[in-house]
RNA sequence: UCCUCGGUAGCUCAAUGGUAGAGCAAUCGGCUGUUAACCGAUUUGUUGGGGGUUCAAGUCCCUCCCGAGGAGCCA
């Protein structure tokens, strides 16, 4: 019976067949140890020369790393085997022989691995990181489904920008210009009036010439938007969301966290409510750490790290000066120079994970803000309509999925948290 | 876009301006419990491209290309 390595433990004592790829081989004159990966896991296969056909032993001798193989044998527990279970082979065959596989079990540089991203995916740490990505995406869907949100996918091709055109990828659209979406938010707000609680999750694109470990030109965002949700409710939603996702990762991706040697105690702190500071207080905290920053300045990457490490937990920064934030954010009634916006900063240098706000629901105020930002009114007419036909207070946020996965998995660079990263000047493979 | 560092064998890296080398991989041989197995042998080069200085350049200078890290901007 052909089975997955993942389920091998429940087949101890049975004769099983496994198909997969050879990840490593150690061989002597009369016994061979083959590590076989089938996608669900890796198992050690022991082949004794005396117990298999001449043909099978010849295949053991000639098999190379990453060749496709098929093995039949008896599954059995053995503490000498990596994983605790191994297969004592009765038959072994090479199905497709690999020659000159570029990635060895020794060290490689980043540039070389990125050129071979399509093969690098087979490596254990890459598989664990991307398995965590899969768990995170599933958890996101479950979180919103359980809370009765409706999935509303926003378009990738858009006629206008959300916040200026300098960071947009431009493309041709039947003779007109179109841009790749950098956020689904503007499209979610009208959908709120149809469904109340909505979210979208998909790729977004930013043509920023950023070249750091925290940037991709194509990255995924999940963005909830909720009608009649105020700023306080928004922060609670974000707390619940992050706590739920972290809990899921700890619960369902434990073996992957182990492969990645992630310090799980850091992740276990991501629960309950998170500390909050206003922008004003955040600047004072930074100044108390000796950082040269003034009220009114925006945070740099280092500033975010210092702030989050100050609390050793994710921290909300709220009530930013109006000038630092986007045109659609609702002013604070108590201090009209600030907006009801929040950023969630992750510890350990993973930076801004979430950005969100209560949105302006007053038509005339939004119109005034558009003009103040020198944005054209015509392309935003449909967006203004949300305030014209049954306006309602509403709030939402966006979370960068890769940044969250990097935080969970302990990845040093976002490029390892997405199967095929797109970065400044890099689009191969 | 700017700053810093780098580009030598398939990979990771050495090499006072003076004969280009090691480990790993690969190939062949040995080994019945290996854990990135081990032991022996063999093969591997337009030193990123172009120009210059010099008796002599991987090494120094100029220039271009490519890569890595960071800044700004952002999620």
* CATH homologous superfamily designation of the largest domain: Bira Bifunctional Protein, Domain 2
CATH domain topology of the largest domain: BirA Bifunctional Protein, domain 2
The number of distinct helices, counting runs of at least 4 residues, comes to: 13
- Low-pLDDT regions: none
Number of strands: 17
Mean pLDDT: 91
The level-1 CATH class of the largest domain? Alpha Beta
- Pattern of helices and strands: EEEHEEHHHEEEEHEEHHHEHHEEEEHHEH
Helical coverage, percent range: 25-40%
Structure commentary:
The chain has 13 helices and 17 strands. It is α+β, with helices and mostly antiparallel strands. It has two domains: 5-96, Nucleic acid-binding proteins (OB fold (Dihydrolipoamide Acetyltransferase, E2P)); 117-417, BirA Bifunctional Protein, domain 2, CATH 3.30.930.10. Strands 6, 10, 11, 12, 13, 14, 15, 16 and 17 form a nine-stranded mixed β-sheet that branches. It has a five-stranded mixed β-barrel with strand order 1-2-3-5-4. It has a three-stranded antiparallel β-sheet with strand order 7-9-8, with no helix packed on it. α4 crosses α6 and α4 (124-146) packs across α13 (401-409). The longest helix is centred in the first third of the chain and has 23 residues, at 124-146. The protein starts with 14 loop residues before the first strand and ends in a 20-residue tail after the last helix. The mean pLDDT is 91. The structure holds one RNA strand of 75 nucleotides.
């Amino acid at each position: 019976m052909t089975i997955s390595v993942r389920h091998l433990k429940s087949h101890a004592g049975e004769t099983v067949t496994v198909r997969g790829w050879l990840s490593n081989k150690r061989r002597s004159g009369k016994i061979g140890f083959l590590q076989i990966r089938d996608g669900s896991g890796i198992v050690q296969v022991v082949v004794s020369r005396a117990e298999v056909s001449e043909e099978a032993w010849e295949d053991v001798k000639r098999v190379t790393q990453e060749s496709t193989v098929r093995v039949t044998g008896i599954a059995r527990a053995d503490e000498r085997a990596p994983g605790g279970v191994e297969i004592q082979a009765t038959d072994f065959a090479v199905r497709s022989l690999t020659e000159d596989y570029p990635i060895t079990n020794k060290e490689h540089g980043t540039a070389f691995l990125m050129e071979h991203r399509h093969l690098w995916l087979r490596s254990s740490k890459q598989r664990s990181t991307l398995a965590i990505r899969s768990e995170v995406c599933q958890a996101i869907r479950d979180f919103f489904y359980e809370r009765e949100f409706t999935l509303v996918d926003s378009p990738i091709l858009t006629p206008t920008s959300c916040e200026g055109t300098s960071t947009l990828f431009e493309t041709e659209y039947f003779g007109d210009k179109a841009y790749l979406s950098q956020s689904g938010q503007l499209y979610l707000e009208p959908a709120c009036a149809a469904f109340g609680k909505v979210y979208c999750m998909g790729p977004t694109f930013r043509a920023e010439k950023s070249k750091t470990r925290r940037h991709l030109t194509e990255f995924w965002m999940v963005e909830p938007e909720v009608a009649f949700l105020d700023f306080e409710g928004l922060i609670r939603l974000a707390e619940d969301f992050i706590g739920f996702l972290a809990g899921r990762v700890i619960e369902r991706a434990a073996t992957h966290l182990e492969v990645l040697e992630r310090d799980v105690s850091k992740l276990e702190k991501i629960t309950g409510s998170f500390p909050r500071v206003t922008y004003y207080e955040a600047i004072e905290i930074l100044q108390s750490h000796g950082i040269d920053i003034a009220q009114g300045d925006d945070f740099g990457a280092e500033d975010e790290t210092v702030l989050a490490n100050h609390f050793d937990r994710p921290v909300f920064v709220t009530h930013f000066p109006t000038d630092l934030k986007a045109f659609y954010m609702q002013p604070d009634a108590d201090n009209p120079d600030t907006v009801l916006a929040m950023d969630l900063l992750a510890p350990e240098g993973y930076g801004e994970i979430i950005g969100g706000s209560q949105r302006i629901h007053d038509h005339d105020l939004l119109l005034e803000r558009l003009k103040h930002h020198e944005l054209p009114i015509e392309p935003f007419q449909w967006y203004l309509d949300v305030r014209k036909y049954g306006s309602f207070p509403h709030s939402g946020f966006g979370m960068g999925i890769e940044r969250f996965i990097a935080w969970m998995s302990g990845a040093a660079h976002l490029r390892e948290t997405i199967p095929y990263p797109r970065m400044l000047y890099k689009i191969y493979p």
